[in-house]
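Check the record.
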Amino acid sequence: MTNGWRAGLQRGGIELRHLLRNGKEMSGHVTNVVVALLVAAYVSDDVPGTRTPMAHLMLAGFAAYLLFQIGLISLPQMLVAEREEGALLRLRATPGGIPAYLVAKCMLVVVVAVSTLALLLAAAALLVDGPLPHGPGDWLTLLWVTTLGLLAVVPLGAAIGAVLPNPREALALIMLPTMGLLFTSGTVFPITSLPVPVQQVAAVFPLKWMAQGLRSALLPDTARTAEAAGSWELPMVALVLTAWTVLGFLLAVPLLRRAARRESGSRLSARHRKAAQNGALPA
């Protein structure tokens, strides 16, 4: 197990260095931050019933969504693309390959997500008077909500990536439900403005609780009156995110192992031939 962790951390470090050299992929994360800042800059109302700027609520929600998106959209696409390239096939011959692979991906996604979150909060504070934690307790809340939120979505993203087809279909299958959650989880406007059944459905998924936890860290305590329960419900935030963390890890490792077992040289060659015929790869 120790060797798996060590190999995973080493692999994660290598992948981080490759990512830093990939300007196109890095620019995608920066673009998400720019979009969030532009939207916040054009919102001037207060959250109904409070004196909290609506822009602050939206920035807290966008912060949660960026974490959610990296774990649940970027990671599955990455896994599907690497499966198509034969990465899972090679893992079959590597002792502890699947756990080490999952550790490396978790490390990569966590570093990218935390860096993107830090960039968003710092840029928002400097450019649009965005919110920041007000004291040590709020910083601690920001830390544990971010950590638990990523633990909740990264293994789940790995599990989804293990069962999805090719990268193009993967994006199409994931994007629609995640965009739906963006608008039903209280990330872009108060969740109390949504119908109760929609609130109840959103409460099943981690994004709603990630956004609520980040609002508790970034917004003044008076803003809690705009929450569905009239409070931040931090114990419930921790409980739901922990449940999704456990579920994600229970699903991710066996599904990745199953995907690796199903890989073979003939399957990989057939996919490459099909991709070449479709013009996705050079013939």
